[in-house]
Design brief:
The complex is a heterodimer of chains A (229) and B (397). Chain A is of the alpha/beta class and 229 residues long. Chain A has one domain: P-loop containing nucleotide triphosphate hydrolases (Rossmann fold, 3-Layer(aba) Sandwich), CATH 3.40.50.300. Chain A has helices spanning 44-51, 74-84, 100-111, 115-128, 144-157, 174-189, 201-205; strands spanning 2-13, 16-28, 33-37, 59-64, 67-68, 85-88, 162-166, 193-198, 209-214, 217-218. In chain A, strand 1 (2-13) and strand 2 (16-28) form a beta hairpin. In chain A, helix 3 (100-111) crosses helix 4 and helix 4 crosses helix 5. Chain A is globular and about 50 Å long. With 397 residues, chain B is α+β, with helices and mostly antiparallel strands. Chain B folds into 2 domains: 3-51 and 264-394, no CATH class; 67-250, no CATH class. In chain B, 55% of the residues lie in helices and 17% in strands. Chain B has helices at 3-15, 18-54, 92-96, 134-138, 151-156, 165-172, 206-212, 231-246, 257-300, 302-310, 315-350, 360-386, 390-394, and strands spanning 60-65, 104-119, 122-131, 143-146, 160-163, 181-184, 187-195, 201-205, 220-225, 252-256. Chain B has a 6-stranded mixed beta barrel. In chain B, strand 2 (104-119) and strand 3 form a beta hairpin. The radius of gyration of chain B is 32 Å and the shape is elongated. Chain B starts with a helix and ends with a helix. The model of chain B is unreliable at 69-85 (pLDDT under 50). Classes of the chains: A alpha/beta (229), B alpha+beta (397). The A-B interface holds A 49, 52, 54-55, 74-75, 78-79, 81-83, 87, 89, 93-95, 97, 106-107, 109-112, 154, 158 and B 1-2, 5, 12-13, 16, 303-304, 306-317, 390-391, 394.
């Protein structure tokens, strides 16, 4: 699913060049549920941007679903994101003027799906996250947990190869956070590949595998207790 | 992505911000209103002038003589100086001799000026024209009642007149005035006829008018050719006649109706173009308003753009979304402007009695121009939006 080798990404801060990622190797198989954990400034956001095809690496290779995407154009990356990746963000990132259903339909619109099919598919996934009765509500009329479930429904709508979640419980209280995590587990059991980015060891501990990242490098697998966060 | 989807998205965005969208539209509305109304005024003026020219018939030739050019020094002040050394005086008989030409049917010189007209206790200034009986045939005069000037009136310098309906209304309050008397410049006149037009002019025998207006040399006369096909030959004959008289073809001008229309159209065309141009500038200013608000909108919606791009919108999708939004604003403004402009035209026409004429072409042009303004001024903001990087846009707050 994801094969990354020697990925390097640099940022220029005034006169200094800072390596956000400094030779990262990652291998994630289909149907895996993996968390990427690291403190802020560790490079995990940069890593997520590259995994999510929002950004490209300066050096190294990245095979996503068998495709080498390092030299893809902006529009080609957009097409990959559209068809193969479902994003779930910490801030939910729903469009405030659209209803839950319209938000869920958005990626399908960019796929060019017909209205009838879109309606059906959006109902299906909203039913999947248990929000069928709220589909005509706007985000402001929904609780945080409900908004995040709408965002998950939107991520699922296009039937992506990968669900990429960036701190999905970060803005939720622990109870709704746990509900959202339960939903991710269900989706994993249903056969979805999920990558979850977090700084929270408790969240990372809930996933079958965790990749630790520190100072732009992946730490070799080791005992959970040895990692200083 | 389907275009209808993008259009409905644009409508939603505009409806979501009604007050601001309307104010932005207002610039275009005012632009389109001014384009349509000003051009309609220009076209209205053109058509009323060309209509009145056309109603005079196609056989008509108009001759103007610049008497002031002749002579030298203080001699060229006006007609009154005619007769002095070096000037050529055109007499009635000279002009009438043109009638001997086989291609010329009617000839009438005219002399006109403004004189005081008094009936009972009512006083007014009227434009007075002295004519020959032929004049009625040359310019197709129709009478509501009574008769026109006849040969005997001209020969005897009879104090008779034919007046327009508006003048009759002003003086007597009605148009049933044949047989009444009035005073022109203190001289007693009998009304023998009333014109079938809403004019306020007073027509009298040429010979008498010449005397009252103290004019000796003829400076304007009208002719009609026997048929519209012989206008050219008639014109050539008049040309020969005048050249023999003046030996200088810059002292006179002969115009047939076609040339007359051309001249008028040239003038009113320039007028329409100027009015349209001024109005076009206001439409341009409206376009700048659109660009301004679209730039604000792009900044405000940076996060939305980031979200859309993250979930798979291509550059083209974002570009089209913002471009269509600005075109919808300008297009709606154009439609509202046309409606408002049409309403304003009705008011000006019916309440103020202005001549208005709006062709479908101008309406289409105004509409097309406003849409074009939307495209041109929407392009820059839309392009700016489409170029945003998804990661930068997502983290914008």
């Amino acid at each position: 699913m994801i094969v990354m080798h020697g990925v390097r990404k640099e940022y220029r801060m005034g006169d200094n060049v800072v390596a956000a990622l400094d030779g990262v190797d990652i291998h994630i198989k289909p149907r895996e549920f993996v968390s990427i954990i690291g403190p802020s400034g560790s490079g995990k956001s940069t890593l997520m941007n590259i995994i999510g095809c929002l950004d490209t690496a300066d050096e190294g290779t990245y095979l996503f679903d068998g495709q080498e995407i390092s030299d893809y154009s902006e529009d080609e990356l957009a097409a990959i994101r559209n068809r193969k990746i479902g994003f779930v963000f910490q801030q939910f990132n729903l469009l405030p003027k659209l209803t839950a259903q319209e938000n869920v339909e958005l990626p399908l619109i960019y796929q060019g799906m017909s209205t009838g099919k879109r309606r059906r598919r959006s109902r299906e996934v909203l039913d999947r996250v248990g929000l069928l009765d709220r589909m005509h509500h706007k985000p402001t009329e929904l609780s945080g947990g409900q908004q995040q479930r709408v965002a998950i429904a939107r991520a699922l709508a296009g039937n992506p190869s990968l669900i990429l979640a960036d701190e999905p419980t970060g803005n939720l209280d622990s109870k709704t956070g746990a509900e959202v995590m339960r939903l991710f587990h269900e989706l994993h059991e249903a056969g979805n590949t999920i990558v979850l980015i977090t700084h929270d060891a408790k969240i990372a501990a809930q996933t079958p595998r965790a990749i630790h990242i520190h100072d732009g490098r992946v730490l070799e697998p080791m005992d959970e207790s040895e990692v200083v966060i | 992505m389907a275009l209808t989807q993008t259009i409905s998205m644009a409508f939603k965005a505009i409806a979501g911000n009604k007050g601001r969208s309307f104010l932005t539209m207002l610039g275009v509305i005012i632009g389109v209103v001014s384009v349509t109304v000003l051009v309609a005024i220009g076209q209205g003026a053109t058509s009323s002038v060309t209509d009145s020219i056309a109603s005079m018939g196609t056989n008509l030739l108009t001759v103007n003589i610049q008497t002031r050019r002749v002579g030298f020094g203080g001699m060229n002040r006006s007609n009154r100086s005619a007769g002095a050394k070096g000037t050529v005086i055109l007499k009635l008989n000279d002009v009438l001799s043109l009638k001997e030409n086989e291609y010329i049917q009617y000839v009438s010189p005219t002399v006109s000026g403004s004189l005081t007209v008094k009936a009972g206790s009512t006083n007014t200034n009227a434009s007075v024209t002295g004519v020959l009986p032929d004049y009625a045939s040359i310019v197709n005069v129709e009478l509501a009642s009574g008769r026109y000037i006849i040969d005997a009136d001209v020969e005897n310098r009879s104090a008779v007149c034919v007046i327009g309906q508006e003048l009759a209304e002003d003086l007597y309050g009605n148009t049933n005035v044949v047989g009444n008397t009035l005073h022109v410049d203190g001289r007693r006149f009998r009304i023998v006829g009333v014109l079938d037009s809403e004019s306020s002019e007073l027509i009298m025998p040429f010979t008498l008018a010449q005397r009252m207006l103290e004019s000796t040399s003829i400076s304007t006369f009208y002719l009609s050719a026997t048929e519209s096909s012989t206008v050219g030959r008639a014109q050539a004959a008049v040309e020969r006649f005048l050249y023999k008289k003046y030996k200088n073809d810059s002292t006179y001008s002969i115009m047939n109706q076609e040339q007359m229309l051309e001249t008028v159209n040239e003038m009113t065309g320039t007028l329409s173009l100027m009015l349209g141009g001024i109005a076009g500038i206001s439409l341009l200013v409206g376009g700048i308003g659109i660009m301004n608000i679209m730039l604000v909108s792009v900044t405000e919606r940076t996060r939305e753009i980031g979200i859309r791009k993250a979930i798979g919108a291509k550059r083209r999708n974002i570009l089209l979304q913002f471009l269509i939004e600005s075109v919808v604003i300008s297009g709606l403004g154009g439609v509202l402007g046309l409606i408002a402009g049409y309403g304003l035209m009705q008011v000006l026409e019916n309440v103020l009695g202005m001549a208005m004429s709006l062709s479908a072409g101008v309406a289409q042009l105004a509409m097309g121009f406003s849409m074009g303004v939307g495209v041109i001024f929407g392009l820059y903001p839309a392009n700016k939006a489409s170029k945003l990087k998804p990661i930068d846009a997502l983290h914008y707050s």
